[in-house]
Amino acid sequence: MKAGAFEPLKFRPFRSLFGAQLFSDLGNWLDFIALQVIVAYHWRLDETAIAAVIITLGLPWVIIGPFASVFVDRLPKKQMMITCLFLRIVFVVGMFLAPNLYILLIFVFLKGTVSAIYDPARQSAIRFTVPDDYLPEAVTLSQLSVNSMKIIGPALGGALIYLFGTRSPFLFEAAGFFIAILFLLTLPNIGEKEYIAENKKTDDGHYWKELSEGIKHISHTPLLKSSVILSSVAFFIIFLYDGLFVFIAQNLGFTKGNFGLLISAVGMGSVAGSLLMGSWTRWKRKPIHLMSVAFLFSGSLIIIMGLGSMEIVQLPVLAWVMGAFFLGFMSSGESVPYGFILQSETPKQIMGRVSAASASIQTFSMLIAPALGSLLAKWLGASFVLIGAGGATCLLGAFVLSFIVRRINDQKEIHEKRFQA
C-alpha cells in the first residue's frame, strides 16, 4: 500500500538520484539573478545583452541535446551524469572569472550544453531506480524539485549577492554541483548492465538512424505525441506574456517592493499542486484529461488578470496574489502529467533520445515566443497580449476536451453497433 508523494524515497537508488537532482536544480536557478545583475548593473549593458544571455541558455537544448541523446542512451547513466556535473563546475568557475559579456556567453553556452545532456540521462535513470507502479510519485517528486528550486534558487542567489558580492552565487552553485556528485556516487548500477549489453548487440553503428528513433517514437505514440504538442503549445503561450508580467503587475497595483509576492505565489502554487498530485494519483488513468482541464482553469485566470490590468476587473493586491497561487497550482496539472506520460510511454532504451527530442521542441517554442510577445505588446499593449494568451489557453483545453468527448462517443457507437450485430 503506497503512502503518498514521498513513497519512492524508500528506494535507495531513487534517494540518491533525487538528492542529486535537488542540488542540480538549485544550481540551475542559483545563477539566474547573478547573470542578470552582472550584465545589467555591473557591466551596465542593455536589454539586448540580457536577451542574449537568455537565448544562449536555451539554445543548447535545441541544437545540442537531441544530437547528444544517442550517446546518452548508449552509455551508463551514472558515469555520464557525474561527468556532466564535473564539467558544470568547471564552466561555472569560468562564468565566475568571465571578464566581459562575450566570454560569459561562451561559458553559459557550455554549461547549457552539459545541462542538455545531463537531464535526458537523469530522465532515463528514473526508470532504473523505482518500479513502474511508483512512476507517478517519482515524476511528481522530480517536478517538485524543479518547482521548489525555481523559488529557492533565485531568492538564495539574491541573498548571496547582498551578503557576499555579485559573483558569489557561482561559487555556491559549484559547491551544489559537487554535493550532487557525492549523491550520485552512492547510486548503484542497478538494471543498466543488461540493457547496455543488449544495446551493444543491436547497435549497427547507424548514428542517424538511432537519432531519428526518438522523433519516430513520439510521432508513432499517440498519447506521447499529444502531450508533447500540448506542452509545447502551452510553453509558447506562457512565454508570450512571461516577459511582460512585470508591466502587468504594475497595472494590477504592485510596486517594486511587493512584486516579488506575485512571482513567489506562482512558485508556491506549483509546489502545492505537485504535492497534491503525488498524494492523489488517480489522474494517471487520464493524464490528457487533467492537462486539458488545467488549461481551461489557468486560461480563465490569465484572462481575468488581463482584464484587471485594463482596470475592467478591480481586486485588492491580496486577491491577485491568490490568483497567482492558483495559476501556479494549475501549472502542475500540466507539467506533472506530461512528465508521467513521457516516462510511462517510452521504452527505457530510447528514453534519452525521446526526452531530448521533446525538450528540444519545447525549448524552441519557448525561445521564439518572447520576441513575438514583445512585438505584440508594442502593437496591442501588454494587457491585450495577456488576454489573448489566456483565451488561447482556454481554447487549447476546450479543443482537446471536445476531441476526447467526440472520440468517446465514437467508441460507444462502434461498441453499440457490434453489440447489435
From TrEMBL:
Q: Where is the Major facilitator superfamily (MFS) profile domain?
A: 1-409
**Could you tell me the membrane topology recorded for this protein?**
Multi-pass membrane protein
**InterPro entries attached to this UniProt entry:** MFS_dom, MFS_trans_sf, TM_effector
* Ranges annotated as spanning the membrane: 49-73, 85-110, 170-191, 228-249, 261-281, 288-307, 319-342, 354-373, 379-405
Domain of life from the UniProt record: Bacteria
Kindly report the protein's main subcellular placement as a broad class: membrane
Provide any one GO MF term from the record: transmembrane transporter activity
Report the protein name in the record.
Macrolide transporter
